[in-house]
Specification:
Number of domains: 1
CATH topology: MetI-like fold
CATH class: Mainly Alpha
Number of strands: 0
Number of helices: 12
Helix content: over 70%
Structural class: mainly alpha
Radius of gyration: 23 Å
Distance between the termini: 30 Å
CATH architecture: Orthogonal Bundle
Order of helices and strands: HHHHHHHHHHHH
Oligomer: single chain
Length: about 260
């Protein structure tokens, strides 16, 4: 059967659609270009070469401390958040009022970041908890938890619970059926939730800055430097590395998702 050639009107419509998509992509990604260009500002052989700004990152002890804090908090958030999200998703499947509980879990998404940060700071003060990596991690887990829950619930929705019933019939208890039957089927969702939580942790600024005390993460350090003295080529270089790392994590999520969809 011969497919008719598109008419001029159809070609014009397709051109408009692709033109609109191109404009949206430019709008989304054009702001990422200036930090990359400015990270190479003043680069010369006399100043240390093309990547002098990137090497200068390691000359700032405060920034190095912020990087280590970011890595440690990101690791905590990436490990704890998917576990909590999985427990919530399992509970939502078992309880009779999942919409109410899900609404409560998603509520932090609709609370302004400053309000949530101040509320958590007051809560920690009432409990007598000093600002630390713990308070910073808790705030970021609360921010990432709704997203991770949605990711895991989406994966669990495609799981056929008949397999669990079969495991029960064969004598497995609830934990054994989950561990040996369901978890292998939804583990890609856990990895996706962990990666998404890690990205949110890397990029979180407002809530963390309110409960950080005397510590910094990379994002809070960048924000304070921007507000007080402006950004140097080294900080633009750090921003570039963060952009690359975020895009790489997102690409990893896409790859994992596509592999899961393959037969």
């Amino acid at each position: 059967m011969t497919v008719p050639a598109p008419t001029s009107a159809q070609r014009a419509a397709n051109g408009l659609v692709w033109g609109f998509v191109a404009l949206v992509l430019v709008f989304l990604y054009a702001p990422m270009v200036p930090p990359v260009l400015r990270s190479f500002a003043g680069a010369s052989v006399e100043n240390g070469g093309l990547f002098a700004s990137y090497r200068a990152i390691f000359d700032d002890p405060l920034l190095i401390g912020g990087i280590w804090n970011t890595v440690m908090i990101g690791a905590i958030v990436a490990v704890v958040t998917p576990v909590l999200a999985l427990a919530i998703a399992q509970a939502l499947r078992e309880w009779q009022k999942p919409r109410l509980i899900l609404g409560l879990v998603l509520l932090p998404l609709f609370v302004p970041g400053v309000s949530m940060g101040v509320a958590m700071a007051v809560f920690f003060k009432v409990l007598g908890v000093e600002p630390s990596l713990l308070t910073m991690s808790v705030v970021q887990i609360l921010w990432a938890l709704p997203f991770a829950t949605l990711v895991i619930m989406t994966v669990m929705a495609s799981f056929d619970e008949t397999y669990l019933e079969a495991a029960y019939v064969l004598g497995s208890n609830r934990f054994a059926a989950f561990w040996k039957v369901e978890l292998p089927c939804i583990r890609q969702g856990l990895f996706g939730a962990a990666a998404f939580s890690l990205i949110l942790s890397f990029n979180e600024t407002i809530r963390t800055s309110i409960v950080q005390g005397g510590r910094n993460t990379v994002q809070t350090y960048l924000w304070s430097q921007y507000q007080q003295v402006g950004l140097s080529p080294a900080l633009y270089a750090l921003m570039t590395l963060l952009i690359v790392a975020t895009l790489a994590l997102m690409a990893g999520i896409v790859v994992v998702t596509r592999r899961r969809q393959l037969p």
